[in-house]
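Figure-free illustration: sequence to structure, shown twice.
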Amino acid sequence: MNIVVCVKQVPDPYLLKFNLSTKSVEDFFYIINPYDRVAVEEAVRIRERTGVGEVTAVTVGPPDVEAVLRTSLTMGADKAIHVNSRSLKNLDAGITAAILARMIGRLQYDLVLCGRRSLDEDNGYVGASIAEQLGLPLVSGVAKVEVSADGRKLTAYRCVEKGDREVVECPTPALLTVDDKLNDPRYPSLPTYIAGLRKKIIKVEATELMKPQEASPATKILTVTQPKPRLKKGFSIGSSLSASERIKLILSGGVKEKGMKMLEEKPELSALEVVRFLQSNKIVAAQKQ
């Protein structure tokens, strides 16, 4: 099974700093998007289970984005394609998705994997747009995937509200956007890592896929600001409370003690009181005599 994985370079959130005076982001270090890392790991696992096919990582961006492709290769990907967008400026999610769709359309693939979201823009648009442009069935938020023995059908388990899972079956080729619950990316073995360092990265100019006059962004970032701080909720002391009750409330930080009842009866009577309490509060159903 040939699998294409779309990967993206994002700033490391643990090293990111925001300068309030200049209103700009500074002192950042780029890493592979964690959701895309999960997608690469799943692609490698599917290839290992089926025993056939190749995993190809694709990204769009300036020359420095090759680092995420190298990461994909050291994880076990077979090929990597860098679409150099240096000649195109102000790329938004729509243009990026169009370039990726045209690049993937040139490849032989049975499955396309994308991260469900990215840590920088977090719009979840690229995967869905690629599926639309390539005419592929789309399953989003995948937390588990099973591929049939012949590779013609897959079963995807989606994360939905309240921890529920939705099971979806679809034919291949298809596009899946994966959740970070899908797997835990492994640490590659030394031979796999060294082999990934030696593999070549295929380079393609973005102008071969899209003319400059077509690359007009539909969106524009106006400004970047920090979220407004949220004030912690305090507590008020009622005027009807006595002085001792007010002091207790202040010392407890506004947390009121829950009412309790001490049982000082024989074990049989204490157990009977507990059962009556559970039944009266409808915690357990009363048995009919």
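We now fold a second protein in the same way, so the two outputs can be compared directly.
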Amino acid sequence: MLTVACVLRAGGIYDVSWVARLRAQVRRHLKIEHRFHIICDSSIIWDDARLSVCGGDTIHTVADCWPGWWAKLELFKPDRFSGPVLYFDLDTLLIGDLSEIASAAAEHDLIMLRDFCRPGGLGSGVMAWRSQEAVAPLYGAFTARPRMFMECHRVGGDQEFIEVRAHLKKVAHWQDVVPGQIVSYKADACERAAPAAARVMCLHGKPKFTDMPADNWARREWEMACAT
């Protein structure tokens, strides 16, 4: 079964409401059987009300969750998941049928974005992999020397670490796997609307949904995610 995963790290702008909205969007646009898995650090308290908005899905608390974007490396832990995995950043808007994107997860060792702003670079906002075996070496390398890697890649972060450590010939790009289906709010000029073929829209950097005017179409879609 496909796992759809996200990561919630305390201390930033994200809270459980972002998780709930992403979960609601996945339910609406992914019709195949799947499980939803949330990785978060142990400082986040999930009471009954917060659990209910996530629909009783799997919440895995990590006591030593790495800071900031480095928390995403927990996705690659060898025994974390079984079967294919599809990952979304919390600042992602799902706006169409995810069938082809989900199917691709089982077909590639690792799929990442071709970075919207750095030609030749990778983006980790949307990722997929067919098995933990394919990505576990990244976890092993990072956890062997985490402080060194966090210092070396303090600007480029987790995605730059993956660029350096992954066998890039084995990393597929979403833009090639599902052309036109994953777009950037900024790079693809989505201020008024997303392209017709788009299924997923990424909000890398600024603005986030909460920075947008109240009447912005993307903000309205995001705010209403749990209401429909």
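Summary for the second example: Residues 16-29 form the longest helix (14 residues).
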